[in-house]
Amino acid sequence: MKFTKPLILAVMMLLVLSAGLMAQEDKYGKVDTIYAEPYQIDAKNWAINVSMFNDEEILAISVPLIFKAGKTAIVADSTIFKGGVAEEFRVKHARVDTAAQCVTIGLIADVGVSVPPIPPGKGRVATIFLSALDKSDFKLTYVDSTTTPPGNNLQLVTPPTEGIVPAFIVKKEAKAEKVKIEKKEKEG
After folding, report:
1. Taking CA 115 as the corner, what is the angle to CA 109 and CA 116, rounded to the nearest 5 degrees?
2. CATH code for the structural domain at 26-173
3. Beta strand 45-54 with 33-42: parallel, antiparallel or unpaired?
4. Is the pLDDT assigned to residue 71 strictly greater than 80?
5. Burial, 122: exposed, middle or buried (Cβ in 10 Å; 0-12, 13-18, 19+)?
6. Residue closest to 140 by CA, chosen among 51, 60, 63, 65
7. Does residue 95 contact residue 78 with C-beta atoms inside 8 Å?
8. Three-class SS of residue 133?
9. For residues 169 and 146, is the Cβ–Cβ distance under 8 A?
10. How large is the average pLDDT for residues 144-162?
11. Contacts with 161 (C-beta within 8 Å, 6 or more apart), sequence order
12. Nearest in space to 154 (alpha carbons), one of 78, 82, 52
């Protein structure tokens, strides 16, 4: 009886850890990765660059993100795809759920064959702009991948239509001192 609780806990931990490792398997080569890189624009505005590494062609992308700023309610004001690796895709959608503090990016190359898939490589997918609902100053404290209704999860789709669950990494925000140093180096 004394061993039952630790045994159950150990089995649960093993299942959780193995599921996380399986989600990052990529039978096509290196692990594909989606990156979220938040940065502060000013006291009232933040942005998140969403980029990816892929080692095979990509036809579609689903990136549901959740974000928080302490007790401040924030919203994804807009999302841009211009200049990104999926700029030419026919379907480019960012669905905002202000109540859940989420945004779901959905991208599809084309139903036909007129838009080529994203080739292997690295690149920015989109930039999401955030502000507080009450227009106050805020600090973005949390960004992560999530699942949004009706079952949108982090996924890449390769030709012909095979899904890959990529790894997800949140990059650290650039330090203000580092940005100032880089500016001085460019000026001087």
Report:
1. 90
2. 2.60.40.680
3. antiparallel
4. yes
5. exposed
6. 65
7. no
8. coil
9. no
10. 93
11. 59
12. 52
The candidate with the shortest Cα–Cα distance to 45, out of 75, 16, 19, is: 75
CA angle at residue 128 from 116 to 51, to 5 degrees? 45
Section 127-153 average pLDDT: 95
Residues written for the chain: 188
Residue 13 makes CB contacts below 8 A (sequence gap 6+) with none
Residue 128: phi and psi, rounded to 5, are -105, 130
Structure tokens of 17? 């850890």
pTM for this prediction: 0.77
> Which has the closest alpha carbon to 67: 22, 25, 97?
97
**How far is it, in rounded angstroms, from Cα 179 to Cα 92?**
31
For residues 158-169, b (16+ Cβ closer than 10 Å) or e, as one string? beeeeebbbbbe
Backbone region of residue 29 per phi and psi (left: phi > 0; alpha: psi in -120 to 50; beta: other values): left
Q: Scanning the structure block, which residue is given the tokens 């980029």?
A: 51
Question: Residue 28: pLDDT band by 50, 70, 90 thresholds?
Answer: low
Q: Left (φ > 0), alpha (ψ -120 to 50) or beta: where does 67 sit?
A: beta
Closest Cα to residue 165, out of 18, 55, 9, 24? 24
Nearest of 92, 42, 100, 51 to residue 76 by alpha carbon: 100
Q: What is the mean pLDDT of residues 109-118?
A: 84
Boundaries of every domain in the chain: 26-173
Provide the token pair at 32.
Answer: 């594909």
